[in-house]
From TrEMBL:
This is LPPG:FO 2-phospho-L-lactate transferase. The gene is cofD. InterPro entries: CofD, CofD-like_dom_sf, FbiA/CofD. Coiled coil: none annotated. Gene3D superfamilies: CofD-like domain, CofD-like domains. It holds the Pfam family CofD. PANTHER family: 2-PHOSPHO-L-LACTATE TRANSFERASE (PTHR43007:SF1). It comes from Nostocoides japonicum T1-X7. The lineage of its organism: Bacteria, Bacillati, Actinomycetota, Actinomycetes, Micrococcales. It comes from the Bacteria. Keywords: Magnesium, Transferase. The keyword Transmembrane does not apply. The keyword rRNA-binding does not apply. HAMAP family: CofD (MF_01257). It is an enzyme of class 2 (transferase).
Length: 327
């Protein structure tokens, strides 16, 4: 089976790790290949280093190096480099980069500086974390830099744009966002393998990633949305909202900015042109009868506190997809 997924950071990587675990439990011999198309709209250059937060969360989680409780960053991390930089007055200090994590950014920045594409660099990083040996292919959505910016009030009746990370991390999404702009998207093309992975998949799964700034940004890459509409594979998504609230993070603030209600049904509406099935928490109300997306309430809470529950959730999404064949 060839499974294609779109993924942000924590929600995406926990789901994909669960999916891998679920597939390993199959007695059918496999092999099953998972292609992960990662969001790079969160990317930022800090201290001269190229940081790709969502790709790194995927690498660390799938490679067994993630800080479990936090959901991102490295386990057993220290922050001595950041402390030294603070002593020099180097900005910004609102974004925490641990010492082990910095090594990833140095490696990436060095290889990018030598002329390698982000796809090539990501493949090299993924080798170190053992993703290929697990049958997981990690692709950035695009090799061109795309950065999500957030348009906020400037306090003087006008507006200004700040980098998504400044809005999310420094301001904790507390500044009302007027809109999101994917800077660089007009020059972006899908990275090698991205469109083929969707078109050639047997199943496409959307993890419960942020629908606006993770999935929504990937959908903006030219060709991705058309590939999802056109693929013969069933496309099934998992809601990132439980009981009308994000399980973690500020997806509700992101939805408010684009004028979409924070409900599982309203989020499904964002993808209704290509979605064949949508898995929601049993407590979430049924969507209006007019909804074009068939919604399935799972018989368990839609939560991934550990690998086993993530595997069960991914298995439920996969079973739903396999029950829905496209014409
Ligand atoms: P980020 O890039 O680290 O913000 O991660 P993603 O975009 O991949 O995922 C963030 C989304 O995952 C948030 O909107 C969360 O509500 C959702 N999420 C995280 N954990 C869970 C979970 O256990 N269950 C569900 N249904 N959603 C989750
Ligand atoms: Ca992210």
């Amino acid at each position: 089976m060839r499974i294609a997924t779109l993924a942000g950071g924590v929600g995406g990587s926990r789901f994909v790790r669960g999916l891998r675990r679920h597939l390993d439990g199959f007695a059918d011999g496999g092999p099953h290949e998972i292609t992960v198309i990662g969001n790079t709209g969160d990317d930022i250059t800090l201290w001269g280093l190229r940081v790709c937060p969502d790709l790194d969360t995927l690498l660390y989680t799938l490679g067994g190096g993630v800080h479990e409780a936090q959901g991102w960053g490295r386990t057993e991390e220290t922050h001595r480099i950041q402390g030294e930089l603070a002593a020099y007055g180097v900005q910004p200090q609102w974004f925490g980069l641990g010492d082990l994590d910095v090594a990833t950014h140095i490696a990436r920045s060095q290889w990018l500086g030598q002329g390698h594409t982000l796809s090539e660099v990501t493949a090299r990083l993924a080798d170190r974390w053992g993703l290929p040996t697990q049958g997981i292919r990690l692709l950035p959505m695009s090799d061109e830099p795309v950065e999500t910016h957030v348009v906020v009030d400037d306090g003087a009746g006008g507006e200004r744009a700040i980098h998504f990370q400044e809005w999310w991390v420094r301001h904790q999404a507390g500044l009302p966002a007027r809109r999101f702009v994917a800077v660089g998207m007009d020059r972006a093309v899908a990275a090698p393998g991205v469109l083929d992975a969707i078109r050639g998949a047997d199943v496409v799964l959307l993890p419960p990633s942020n629908p606006v700034v993770s999935i929504g940004i990937i959908l903006g890459v030219p060709g991705v949305r058309d590939a999802l509409r056109g693929t013969t594979a069933p496309v099934v998504g998992v809601s990132p909202l439980v009981g009308g609230a994000p399980v973690r993070g500020h997806a509700d603030a992101c939805l408010a900015a684009i004028g979409v209600e924070a409900t599982s049904a309203a989020v499904a509406g964002l993808f209704e042109d290509f979605l064949d099935g949508w898995l929601v928490d049993p407590a979430d109300p049924a969507p209006p009868a007019a909804s074009r997306v068939p919604v399935t309430a799972w018989d368990r809470p839609l939560l991934m506190p550990d690998v086993e529950s993530a595997a069960a959730l991914a298995g439920a999404a996969l079973d739903l997809a396999l029950s829905l064949q496209r014409a």
